[in-house]
Amino acid sequence: MTLLLSVSGSFLVLAVLAKLAQRLGARRQGQMLASLSAFIAHDASPSFTTDAEGEIGYQNRAATDRFGARGGQTLARALGELFANPGSVLARLQSKAVALGAAREDVVTRRGHMRIAVHRIDGGGFLWRLEDMAERAVGGRGGETLSLPMLTVSKTGTILFMNEALRRLVGERMRTLDRIFTDLPIRSGEEQEITTTEGPMRCMVAQIEGAGGRDEIYLMPVAPGRPGTHDPASFESLPVALMRLAIDGRAVDVNRAARGLLGQIAPGTRLCDLFEGLGRPVEDWVADAVAGRTERRPEVLRARRGDREVFLQVTLARVIEEGRTGLIAVLSDATQLKTLEGQFVQSQKMQAIGQLAGGVAHDFNNLLTAISGHCDLLMLRHDKGDPDYTDLDQISQNANRAASLVGQLLAFSRKQTLKPRVIDLRDTLSDLTHLLNRLVGEKVVLTLIHDDNLSTIRADKRQLEQVIMNLVVNARDAMPGGGEIRIETENLRLIEDLKRDRAAVPKGDYVVVKVTDEGTGIPPDKLGKIFEPFFTTKKPGEGTGLGLSTAYGIVKQTGGYIFCDSVLGSGTAFTLFLPAHDRPAEVETDAPAGPALELPAVEESAPSRVLLVEDEAPVRAFASRALKLRGYTVFEAENAEEALRILDDESLVFDVFVTDVIMPGMDGPTWVAEALKRRPDTAVVFVSGYAEDVFREGRPPMPKSVFLPKPFSLSELTATVQNQISRHGKRKAGAMSAGHASASGGSAPDSSQARLS
C-alpha cells in the first residue's frame, strides 16, 4: 500500500511539473509573438504569422488594409486573389524555411511583381512578408503613372498587370484578354473594340514585345460617336514608334518615338523616300496593305538617313479614321538584328569561298605537281645547250608562278602549311626594308617607326613578309604621284574586348602594325569588300584581287586581326593586331639546301624500298619514275586499302612510306597509323596539296614522319626521301626479300620483274 502511494505521488509531481513547463513555454511564446507583432505592426508591407498548417494568427495593419481581416483563414486563401495556385508557392517556401531558416521568391501577380519572404520563428510558426516590386519603367515612368490605359500580358494571354487608367476604364482587374477585347487576336496598329463599364468602346491598339515573354499593350480610346477620331496628345506620347499614312503612302502624322528613329519628317513625305531595301516598289507594298493583302507581315527596311545606318522592322495595317481608309505603320528598331544577320551572312560567304578556294588549290597543286615533275624528267635528258631546254625551262618557271598563285588561294582559305616561330618584328621589317624600297620606287618615301620595347610575336616570317609587301604595294599603287608610306609598330594592351567591323578582338596583349598611305582612299561602298577574293579597285590587268584576301588569310591563320580605315581622297590605313609573346625571338637557321639532282648508280645489293600511295595517277607516275631514277625500288598503290593489302605480305620490308594525305576512302594518316602497328620502324613522308587538321601547327601527326607540300620538284621529293632513310636507318639486310616490283605493275630499275597479287 505504501508503494502504491509512493508511485502515485511521483506521477502527480511529474504532471504538475509538465503543466508548469507548458505554461512557461506558452508564456514565452506569447511574449515572443507580442514582441514580433509590435515589430511588424507599422511595416508598410503586408505581413502575416501562420502556424505549420498555414493558418493566419496575426496580420499587421498593411495586410488588413489590403486583404481585410483574415484571422482563422489560411494564407493560401488570402493570396488566391493575387495569383493562381498560391498553395504550391507557399508550401515550397515553407519547406525551404524549415531547412534554412528563411526563404524568398519573386512571383508575377495580377498587380505586377511581388516578393514573398518567410522566416521560421520559435514554436513552429512562420512570419510572412509581401513586398510589391516596381514595374519595369516605360518611357521613363512607371506604368501606374501613365495616363494612357495599358496592360502587360503573357504569351498565353494572361493579364499580368493593368495600370490604374485601364482599371478605371474597364471597372475591375481582368485575368484574360477576352474579358477586355471583343475581337481577338490583338492587331497592333489597328482600332479594336473593348468592353468598358459604359459599354463597348473603340481604341487604337499598340503592342510592344517585351523581355521574358511579357508584351505591353497600350490603348488609345476613340471618342464615342466619332469612329476613327484620335487624341493627338496620346498619339504623340505613345512609347511606340507610329506613323499615320494616307492610302497613297504619304506621311500624315509621325509621333515622337518614330521621329527618334527617322529624324524630322515633313508632312506629305512619301514612304519610298524614307525607306529602301524592300526589293519591290514601295507603292505596290502600300497598295497591298490598303487592300488587306499583306496580313500585317513585317518588312525589314533601311532608313534613308545620312548621319547613321538604321534598319527598321515596319508593319503596315489598315485602319478607318473619320470614315476614311488609312494606314498605320508600326516601327521597331532592327539595326542590331540586321548587323548580326550581316555578320552571319558574311561568315557563311567567306567560309564557302574559302572551301572553294581550298578545294581548287588542292586540285591545281596535283596538276602542277604532275606538270612540273614531268618537266623535270624531260630536262634531265636535255643539256642546257639543247634548243628544247629553253622551252622546258619556260614551262618550269610558269609552273612555279602558277604554284605561287595557288599558294595565295591556300592563304586566303587558311589551309596552307605555316612554320610559325617567335620573331622580333623590328628585325623582320629591317631585313625587308631593302626589298620594300625597291618596290615603292623613287617617288614614294618609306618610313619605319618602331616601339623601342616591342614584344615578340609567333608567326611564319615568310608569310608575314608577304602580308607587309602586299600592303606596301597597294599603298604605292594608290599614290601614282608619290607620297609617304608609314609602317609603325607598337605594343597595345586591351583591357576589354575591342569590337569593330563585325569582329571582336579579345582583351590581352598585342603587337600592332599600321601601314598608312596618303593615296586616293577607298570608297565607303567598297570598303567592306576589300578582303574578298578577286575583288579589286584596280583596272583590268593591273591586279588579281588576291593580295588583300591573302593577307587576311595569313593574319587570321596566325591568330591575329586586320582592319582597314580609309578616307576618300586622304589615304588609307591598315591595322594588324598580332598576339604578343613574352619569349625571346628564335634564331633563324637556314635549312640545308637539297642535294643537286644527280643520278647515282643503282645499289645492286640492297636498294631501299619505297611504298608510294597516291590516288592521282599522273602524280603517282612522276613520283615513281623520280624515285626509281634515284635508285629506289618502288611499290605503287592508288589508295590506302591497296597499300594495306601489300603490307599483308610480311616478307616485304619497306624503308619509307610516301603517301598522299587526302584520298578517297581511308586517308593517309589513318592507314599509316594502322601500318605502323605492324611496322613501327618505317619512316613516313606525307604529301598533300594542303595540310588538314591532322597537321596541327605544321607538325607531322606521328613520329618519324615529315610533310612535303605539293607541288614539289623531282629533287625535293628525292632529297626528302633520302633524308628520311638516312635519319631513321636502313632496314636490316636479313629482312630483305628478293624481287623488285610495283603494286601497279611498274618495274624496278633492274631487269627482274614480279607482280604482286
TrEMBL record:
<dbReference type="InterPro" id="IPR035965">
    <property type="entry name" value="PAS-like_dom_sf"/>
</dbReference>
<dbReference type="Pfam" id="PF02518">
    <property type="entry name" value="HATPase_c"/>
</dbReference>
<keyword id="KW-0547">Nucleotide-binding</keyword>
<dbReference type="Pfam" id="PF00512">
    <property type="entry name" value="HisKA"/>
</dbReference>
<protein>
    <recommendedName>
        <fullName>histidine kinase</fullName>
        <ecNumber>2.7.13.3</ecNumber>
    </recommendedName>
</protein>
<dbReference type="InterPro" id="IPR036890">
    <property type="entry name" value="HATPase_C_sf"/>
</dbReference>
<dbReference type="InterPro" id="IPR003661">
    <property type="entry name" value="HisK_dim/P_dom"/>
</dbReference>
<dbReference type="InterPro" id="IPR004358">
    <property type="entry name" value="Sig_transdc_His_kin-like_C"/>
</dbReference>
<dbReference type="InterPro" id="IPR001789">
    <property type="entry name" value="Sig_transdc_resp-reg_receiver"/>
</dbReference>
<dbReference type="InterPro" id="IPR011006">
    <property type="entry name" value="CheY-like_superfamily"/>
</dbReference>
<dbReference type="GO" id="GO:0005524">
    <property type="term" value="F:ATP binding"/>
</dbReference>
<keyword id="KW-0067">ATP-binding</keyword>
<keyword id="KW-0597">Phosphoprotein</keyword>
<dbReference type="InterPro" id="IPR036097">
    <property type="entry name" value="HisK_dim/P_sf"/>
</dbReference>
<feature type="compositionally biased region" description="Low complexity">
    <location>
        <begin position="734"/>
        <end position="757"/>
    </location>
</feature>
<dbReference type="InterPro" id="IPR003594">
    <property type="entry name" value="HATPase_dom"/>
</dbReference>
<dbReference type="InterPro" id="IPR005467">
    <property type="entry name" value="His_kinase_dom"/>
</dbReference>
<dbReference type="Pfam" id="PF00072">
    <property type="entry name" value="Response_reg"/>
</dbReference>
<feature type="region of interest" description="Disordered">
    <location>
        <begin position="725"/>
        <end position="757"/>
    </location>
</feature>
<feature type="domain" description="Histidine kinase">
    <location>
        <begin position="359"/>
        <end position="582"/>
    </location>
</feature>
<feature type="domain" description="Response regulatory">
    <location>
        <begin position="609"/>
        <end position="725"/>
    </location>
</feature>
<feature type="modified residue" description="4-aspartylphosphate">
    <location>
        <position position="660"/>
    </location>
</feature>
